[in-house]
Amino acid sequence: MVDPTSDLGEDVDESDAPACANCDEPILQSPTHRVVTWVEDGAVRHRHFCSEECREEFGE
Ligand SMILES: [Zn+2]
């Protein structure tokens, strides 16, 4: 069986909307939704942001 969410990190609850890492707002089909991914200790990590502004405020 193919898991369509397998490219998401294990720290995200796929059954729920992701929350913005900066302001904690749930992100529901937002056109300004941003996902930042990086590699840490050999694993792909990611964070969701509701907007470019929040991504910049978070500072990563
Ligand atoms: Zn936000």
From TrEMBL:
Pfam families per UniProt: DUF7576 (PF24461)
UniProt protein name: Small CPxCG-related zinc finger protein
InterPro entries associated with the record: DUF7576
Superkingdom of the source species: Archaea
Source organism of the structure: Halogeometricum luteum
Region annotation Disordered: where it falls in the sequence: 1-24
